[in-house]
Amino acid sequence: MIIIVLSATLLATLAAGQSQDSCYADQTDPYILFGTATPYEAVSNTNASYVYIDKCEAKQFWIISRHGTRYADADEVDELKDLYDLQEKIIKNHEKDGSGSLCAKDLENLKLWTLQVVSNVKRDLTPQGYNDLYRLGKRFKSRFPALFKQTVTKDSFKVQFTTKQRTAASAIAFVDGLFGTGMGLEFPEALEDDMLIKPYASCKKWEKDVEKNKDTTKEMKKF
Asked: Signal sequence: where (predicted)?
């Protein structure tokens, strides 16, 4: 859904057009926050400075984090293919109807656009998703260096994730950022019924009243 909203909104913006005195292709700092969800690195707090609080010493660190950016699933890919129709309409507006306002460079770039999706890794973590968590880990290490200088063992650090590939890979990326790739931290086996990370998955009431109840998300879908 992230890619669908992002791409569709971007092409819709192109359809509306802009003055031919400027080109999207020449913008060095384009507006990129078109989606309802955005890769963390695009909006992250990049402050990696040491955290100092007078008369205080960091003793413990814990975080519950969502996985990084994932690939689309089959249904989302099918929806993305509708963008070809929008692409064709924009080009037709310019070349046949004379009603478009894109500069020549933008129009040529739009003609060259193709949908790039990977169909055999649906919902798995993307390279962008790995980088999201890896860099997040590095920043935390820079901000609280004393906590991460000790020897890495299964007793000193605990990492937990669900059975999904995207969450396991995100955990590995975060640990790689904290301690460096290949530090050998032992990871526990993911639990099928994890009451800490996914308590809702074992709740029949939630499944009935929320997940399978269309009224739960009707306002979100209206938005």
From this structure: 1-17
Q: Are 121 and 217 contained in the same domain? A: no
List, as one string, the DSSP characters of 15-41.
Answer: HH---TTS-GGG-SS-----SSS--HH
How many Å apart are CA 108 and CA 100, to the nearest integer?
A: 13
Contact 160, 196 (CB under 8 A): yes
Q: Is 196 helix (H, G, I), strand (E, B) or coil?
A: coil
> What does the chain come to in residues?
223
* Domains of the chain: total: 2
| Residue entry with tokens 């993911």 | 190
Are residues 69 and 152 located together in one domain of the fold?
yes
Query: What's the rounded Cα separation, in Å, for the pair 189 and 27?
Result: 47
pTM (2 decimals)?
Answer: 0.72
CB 159 within 8 A of CB 185: yes
List the single range of 94-108, 153-167, 178-192 with lowest mean pLDDT: 178-192
List the domain range (segments joined by +) for residue 119. Answer: 2-190
Query: Could you tell me if 184 and 204 lie in one domain?
Result: no
First vs last C-alpha separation in the chain = 14
